[in-house]
Amino acid sequence: MASRTLWKIPVLIGSVRRGRQTPKAALFVKNRMEATGKILSELLDLREINLPIMEERLGHREDPPPGLQFLADKIRYGDGLVLVSPEYNNGIPGVLKNALDYLYEEFHRKPVAIVTVSNGAYGGINALAQLRLVLLAMGANPVPTRLPIGNIEDMLDENGTPQRESLQKRADDLILDLLWSVQKASEMAQ
Ligand SMILES: Cc1cc2nc3c(=O)[nH]c(=O)nc-3n(C[C@H](O)[C@H](O)[C@H](O)COP(=O)(O)O)c2cc1C
User: In 3D, which of 28, 52, 67 has the Cα closest to residue 152?
Assistant: First the structure.
């Protein structure tokens, strides 16, 4: 077992929509991770980072747009990552795919937990499956446990507090899975 006391695992908010719900889920997972006492987390918000349309990947550019290096460093130097994405038209939002397409090396063997949200019953499972494929293409290591959150408007309040106990249990299962992968990745890197 790796002996590190605090793992760095940021949470990326993959929605910039006006009136968006996704930050509630991001805050919820961040809070649950920090409650383990083993994880130091922070929110990375694509609305704040505000990247332009990708013309070329970071590794091939000498003039990265503002915010891109910040995002890349947060992902590269994190022990793992949580991606929180809404589902739009059966897929992931363009703004999230655009951000991911800027990056590549930063994701190498990175343990990533995927959380998706929707206002319907299925919680964005199509987006979840797509995001897995995207992450695999980037050489990341998406963890097997999934957390699709349906009926997002009622499921979490503005502070990310779950309105059902089952959601807390599902989030904790995801975090346990992510921590396992993070620890294994760290052991292998030594
Ligand atoms: C452009 C658009 C397309 C959507 N398509 C889907 C969809 O295919 N499946 C689904 O379950 N929900 C869909 N929804 C509903 C979203 O899941 C819901 O609005 C959710 O709150 C989106 O996250 P956000 O609030 O962070 O944008 C769509 C919403 C928008 C704005």
Answer: 28
CA distance 186 to 135: 19
- Which among 37, 59, 39, 45 is positioned nearest to 13, based on CA atoms? 45
Cα(149) to centroid(ligand 1), Å = 12
Please name the amino acid found at residue 1.
M
The pLDDT tens digits for 110-157 are 999 999 999 999 999 999 999 999 999 999 999 999 999 999 999 999
- CB 21 near ligand 1, within 6 Å: yes
Share of the chain above pLDDT 90, in %: 95
- How many A from CA of 184 to the centre of ligand 1? 35
- Asked whether the beta carbons of 18 and 49 are under 8 A apart, the reply is no
Domains located in the chain, CATH noted: 7-184 (3.40.50.360)
Task: Please indicate whether residue 20, judged by its CB atom, sits closer than 6 Å to ligand 1.
Answer: yes
Is the pTM higher than 0.90?
Answer: yes
